[in-house]
Amino acid sequence: MTFEELVEEMKPFHNHMCIMYDLEVVRLIGVGRDDCDYYYIVQVRNRESPINWASAVGHLYSLKGLIPEERYNTMERVFSMNWGKPTETFLESIGEDLV
Predict the structure, then answer these.
(1) Does residue 35 lie in a domain region?
(2) SS3 string of the chain?
(3) Do 95 and 41 touch, CB atoms closer than 8 A?
(4) Tens of pLDDT along 14-69?
(5) Are strands 60-62 and 91-94 parallel, antiparallel or unpaired?
(6) 60: which strand partners?
(7) What Cα–Cα distance (Å) separates residue 9 from each residue in 6, 43, 73?
(8) Residue 16 falls in which region: left (phi positive, over 0), alpha (psi -120 to 50) or beta
(9) Which domain holds residue 13?
(10) In a domain, 58, yes or no
């Protein structure tokens, strides 16, 4: 998979609440790459470091449409109040530079 294909695959899930690696609830805000790997750029439940670059080798599934809408909306609202609001643009990053 090319980086451009990853961007196109993930862009529809911008700002979705997701399960990453079948373990952690995150908000997808972009994708990135460096010389070694592709990454999901996600907001995580951590006040000290709320944005994480996580290897795209693992799975990321949107919860939107998979759980009752009321539960999803509550999850999104609580996440926004505590760990980060939705972003206006989908981040595409090469190394540390956002494009």
Answers:
(1) yes
(2) CCHHHHHHHHHHHCCCEEEECCCEEEEEEEEEECCCCEEEEEECCCCCCCEEEEECCCCEEECCCCCCHHHHHHHHHHHHHHCCCCCCCCEEEECCEEC
(3) no
(4) 999 999 999 999 999 999 999 999 999 999 998 788 899 999 999 999 999 999 99
(5) unpaired
(6) 20
(7) 5, 18, 23
(8) beta
(9) 3-93
(10) yes
Does 14 map to a domain? yes
How much is the pLDDT for 66? 96
Residue at token pair 């079948």:
22
pTM reported for the whole predicted model:
0.91
For the beta carbon of residue 91, count every other beta carbon within 10 angstroms. Answer: 16
